[in-house]
Design a protein that fits this description.
The protein has about 130 residues and is mainly beta. The chain is about 0% helix and about 45% strand. The strands form two sheets. It has a six-stranded mixed sheet with strand order 2-10-9-4-5-6, with no helix packed on it. Strands 1-3-8-7 form a four-stranded antiparallel sheet, with no helix packed on it.
Length: about 130
């Protein structure tokens, strides 16, 4: 059974940077487009970035464009999210998951249902003002 581990979160001041990592055990993510999702307190889990299985195509939610960069190391089977110029509204728990598909001009969707047991614990990001 696939297990997902997100890491790299923490407490950072506004304007700071963090790099999140996403790894899976029991299944490789190399054959999937992968997305990073953010869940703020009291809100739904929304996708903020996605990357194709090859790494050649990426997608970003408007509020993070120019500040976040998604990448992947296929040799290590790890997907990263570099977050720069962080804002308090970036705070939340960040998750990664495979995507159903990735296109440059449409918001991607997770391959897992919201209540799926495959979601990891996430990694918490707190940006102080």
């Amino acid at each position: 059974q696939v297990q997902v581990l997100e890491s790299g979160g923490g407490l950072v001041e506004s304007g700071g940077s963090l790099r999140l990592s996403c790894e899976a055990s029991g299944h490789t993510f190399n054959n999937h487009a992968i997305g990073w999702f953010r869940q703020a307190p009291g809100k739904e889990r929304d996708v903020v970035a996605g990357i194709s299985y090859s790494g050649t195509l990426t997608w970003y939610e408007d509020s993070v464009k120019g500040r976040f960069t998604i990448s992947r190391d296929r040799a290590k089977d790890v997907v990263y999210l570099q977050m720069n110029s962080l804002k308090p509204e970036d705070s939340g728990v960040y998750y990664c998951a495979p995507l159903l598909a990735l296109y440059s001009n449409s918001q991607p969707r997770a391959a897992w249902e919201r209540e799926s047991v495959y979601w990891g614990q996430g990694t918490q990001v707190v940006v102080s003002s």
